[in-house]
Design a protein that fits this description.
two-stranded antiparallel sheet; 14 helices; single chain; globular; 2 strands
Length: 355
């Protein structure tokens, strides 16, 4: 009973942070998908104002996601709203991004600041706002009210920002780097096992922001040898999430809000964007998340069997299939279909545990 109560608290915290932005995440993903399709089809010029503005509002929402999460997390954890948003302001400051997201070096008081991906990240800003909650309390208690308004932000930034850049920020990069190295060791041994490995882990990596570590590797591979072998293994993971979300939508009878979010998440995943699915549907319902990851593992193994390649950088979905035409293309399509079915069926058979 006690363990169940703790799990419910965690679910409530996750829900409280992500539910307020799910509709906007979904809207941004739809706008982005439509505008990209119109651009690729030649209906809209990639240099036109229409394309750039609508791409900007859609991709910009994901890029500046830390700001939105700082806002909702501060509301959930009762921290100072504007002070919480000062954290991502530093994280996404262009001068800092240019250094830390391009492999440059920087130090803080003589301590090296490791490279990290801050745009579109989730974990660093949430950990930072969580720390801020504990830093704010003594500040509110000890700082005289006459000067608290400007002294508290100074002291809080002096504590939270160094910890964020030295520890919280690089966590996702460290995880991603180690898992990517492990992936290539496995891939050179057995592509099928490597596909299952990456297919299972990639969506949990998205949750902590570790997936950005594979992006420069994929881009470099396409630029140097003309193709990439990682991205095709990830299509199954996307559609495993889609299948699990659809099943949850069916199982949430009498829970209209959860049902709406699940169907919405299934649609978002179907067009290749899993963030609304993860944060609004499967992460809070861990059994659905596990089913989706198993579906992703099966799909990754299938893509590995076929030796699927990607010749242009594009995250996998049915909208971007053209980038995967070539060796193993049929296996890539089969991997997504099978992953969807596995995620759907494994979630459905757990109906008595779904709440």
């Amino acid at each position: 009973m006690e363990q169940e109560k703790k799990r419910n608290v965690v679910v409530e915290q996750i829900t409280g942070i992500f539910v307020p932005i799910i509709n906007y995440l979904t809207a941004a993903s739809i706008i982005k998908s439509v505008i990209v399709v119109l651009g690729n089809a030649g209906i809209l010029s990639l240099q036109s104002g229409v394309y750039r503005i609508f791409y900007g509002v859609s991709d910009g929402f994901f890029y500046f996601l830390p700001f939105f999460l700082a806002y909702t997390a501060s509301k959930q954890w009762h921290t100072d709203r504007l002070l919480s948003m000062m954290i991502p302001a530093a994280m996404l400051y262009p001068d800092i991004l240019e250094v830390l997201e391009n492999g440059g070096s920087m130090s803080f008081g003589g301590i090296p600041v490791n490279s990290a991906i801050y745009h579109s990240s989730v974990l660093p800003v949430l950990m930072a706002v969580g720390l801020l909650k504990f830093v704010e309390k003594p500040c509110d208690r000890l700082i005289p009210e006459a000067v608290r308004g400007f002294v508290k932000p100074i002291l809080c930034c002096a504590v939270v920002l160094p910890v964020t850049f030295l520890l919280f920020g690089p966590i996702g990069t460290w995880i991603g780097d180690y898992l990517t190295e492990l992936f290539f060791l496995i891939y050179h041994w057995n592509p099928v096992v490597a596909g299952a490995f990456m297919g299972f882990l990639i969506q949990p990596m998205v949750v902590v922001g570790a997936h950005w570590s594979i992006v420069p590797i994929c881009i470099n591979s396409i630029a140097t040898v003309g193709y990439d072998v990682i991205l095709p293994l990830l299509g199954g993971a996307v559609y495993g999430q889609c299948g699990a979300a659809l099943a949850l939508g069916i199982l949430y009878k009498g829970q209209q809000e959860k049902r709406r979010m699940a169907f919405q998440g299934a649609f978002s995943a179907a067009i290749g964007v899993t963030e609304p699915t993860l944060f609004g549907v499967t992460v809070p319902q861990i059994r659905g998340m596990l089913a989706a990851c198993i579906g992703g593992a099966v799909g990754g193994a299938i893509a590995g069997i076929g030796g699927a390649h990607c010749t242009t950088f594009a995250f996998p979905s049915f909208l971007t299939c053209i980038a995967y035409i070539g060796p193993g293309f049929v296996w890539f399509l089969i991997s997504m279909a099978v992953s969807f079915l596995v995620g759907f069926l494994l979630t459905m058979v757990q109906r008595k545990w779904i709440r």
